Amino acid sequence: MDAIEIKQWTSDSVAADLERAIHEHRLPPATKLGEDELGDAYGISRTTVRAALHALSHRRLVELKRNRGAFVAQPSVREAREVFEARSLLEPRTARSAAERMTDIELARLRENIEDEHAALDASEDGRALFLSGQFHLEIARIADQSTIEAFISELISRSSLIIALYWRRRAALCETQAHHALLDAFERRDGDAAEQLMKSHLLDLVASLDLRNVAQPATSLREALQR
Amino acid sequence: MDAIEIKQWTSDSVAADLERAIHEHRLPPATKLGEDELGDAYGISRTTVRAALHALSHRRLVELKRNRGAFVAQPSVREAREVFEARSLLEPRTARSAAERMTDIELARLRENIEDEHAALDASEDGRALFLSGQFHLEIARIADQSTIEAFISELISRSSLIIALYWRRRAALCETQAHHALLDAFERRDGDAAEQLMKSHLLDLVASLDLRNVAQPATSLREALQR
DNA sequence: GTCGCCAGTTTTGTGTACAATCTTGCGCAC
DNA sequence: GTGCGCAAGATTGTACACAAAACTGGCGAC
């Protein structure tokens, strides 16, 4: 079947694999992540799975319930607002720094990223497109050369993916890549002011495209909905 | 001796205990944290110790070296700059929010915090004073009611403590509480603009009071210094 | 008929044992 | 005398086994 048996999984690589699966919406919010189940799937012991699950819980991608198990997180409306509030504090300034110190090679990588995203969208690979969209933002933080801020943004992007899974209202599928194109233009001009401003409004647009009225609760799995 | 035997330590509480010890400089940078050693100290197995150590490594307070062990982290000069860069992006705006929504009760708690810090300084309990100083910043984030940003700031504050341990140059011992007093005044007036501005310059002052010339490397333990 | 209690089953939490890896010290060759 | 290599010791990484807790189902009493 798969080449799973070939690779030697470590707790880190398992965590990365799960994070990507969550990011691509292959593991939707509230999915139960049983330790035995995962151990069998990856061919590793529960000990290693536990380490990976704990790592993801520190990034708020997985919720650990004592004696209940691990579940893909379901960010609340409040948490959703907070995540984008944090992003709006970090990313615009980071985009400015990136614009001011970007090399042609880095610019080319960003351009490539956008093209891949387009290709994924054309192939209706929504999950992959969403992941690449996140990679675009992450790449900008990487170019800004601030690894600490980059780590925060990385976490926020992954969490944003969960938020999108829960609260996205189909509307603007294109505006996403549109905004990224605009940012790329600013980067090409090494225009820090424009990049900061564009990132700011891009994030605002993202929040606007979500349905964050507390009326519609996460619509989670059965009992979870009633425990609230 | 101690009441350690009474308490039932969990991985979380052990992590919190270690974090506080690090924050108060009872565990200086580069201290080796052996698993057996810690297990004996807390009366728990290595399994639980490992979970705590991993948690702290996610917050960049301890560095895990494969097959080598866990050590209290030694932030590089570069990392030090990054941490304060991140703080300067997050904390000023957070202070503004806090100022605008602060209640009298919260104000009183902050005042109390400053008094405790004064008392600790008078008693020459430097570690405790440093911890309380961090708590002041953390309390502000809590008042701003943004738990996501609060979590980031909490991590940055703890890491700042390590940075101070490594790079502090004795100079302004008082300016710290001075700045906190000024912030408190702004909070009393619910003056968001002033709070944001004061926090911004407070953080700049902090960086200025560090010796971040790359000349003087961490001055770590023997071999560590040479591996760089 | 409904509510409450109790036991069975499943899943996580913790402790222990073994394997892999790295460090350290000695010995041998050049 | 110096440098390399190998073996012994120590420490972490992983797997396994047991204990604790929570959910599920059924039985019995009111």
UniProtKB/TrEMBL annotation, chains A, B:
The protein's GO terms of the molecular function aspect are:
DNA binding; DNA-binding transcription factor activity
State the UniProt keywords alphabetically: DNA-binding, Transcription, Transcription regulation
SUPFAM superfamilies per record? GntR ligand-binding domain-like (SSF48008), Winged helix' DNA-binding domain (SSF46785)
The reply to whether Magnesium figures as a keyword in the UniProt entry is no
Pfam assignment, any one? FCD
Keyword Isomerase listed? The answer is no
List residues of the HTH gntR-type domain.
8-75
Q: What is this protein called?
A: GntR family transcriptional regulator
Q: Which organism is it from?
A: Marivita geojedonensis
Q: What is the lineage of its organism?
A: Bacteria, Pseudomonadati, Pseudomonadota, Alphaproteobacteria, Rhodobacterales
